[in-house]
Design goal:
By secondary structure, the protein is mainly alpha-helical. The protein has one domain. About 80% of the residues lie in helices and about 0% in strands. The longest helix has 26 residues. The protein starts with a helix and ends in an 11-residue tail after the last helix.
Length: about 100
């Protein structure tokens, strides 16, 4: 149990999660018929998650609040890019047509 506590107190849990996250995107991209396209589709979401995990690691180790805030802002920006890219193909469905 003390090892789990150590992982959280030292911030290593965030590093482990980052490695798993990037290994997952690499595996999904390589397994795809179009690896580069798949990677580019997954990149904004992965960057958003990465920023959140870095902010978590910094917070767990009493990091600088401004740096933590910067990573949280980066996560929000990456998330906005991800949502915008997902909605781009559905833009015509959001137009209101009235008579």
């Amino acid at each position: 149990m003390s090892f789990v506590i150590y992982l959280f107190q030292s911030g290593w849990i965030a590093v482990i999660a980052l490695v798993i996250l990037w290994a997952e995107i690499a595996l999904l991209s390589v397994a795809s018929a179009a690896p580069r396209k798949r990677f580019m589709l997954l990149l904004p979401n992965t960057l958003s998650g990465s920023c959140l995990l870095v902010a978590l690691g910094l917070a767990l180790t009493d990091g600088n609040l401004f740096v933590i805030a910067a990573f949280l802002g980066g996560s929000l920006l990456s998330h906005a890019v991800d949502v915008a890219s997902r909605l781009a193909g559905h833009a015509s469905g959001f137009k209101r047509q009235t008579e």
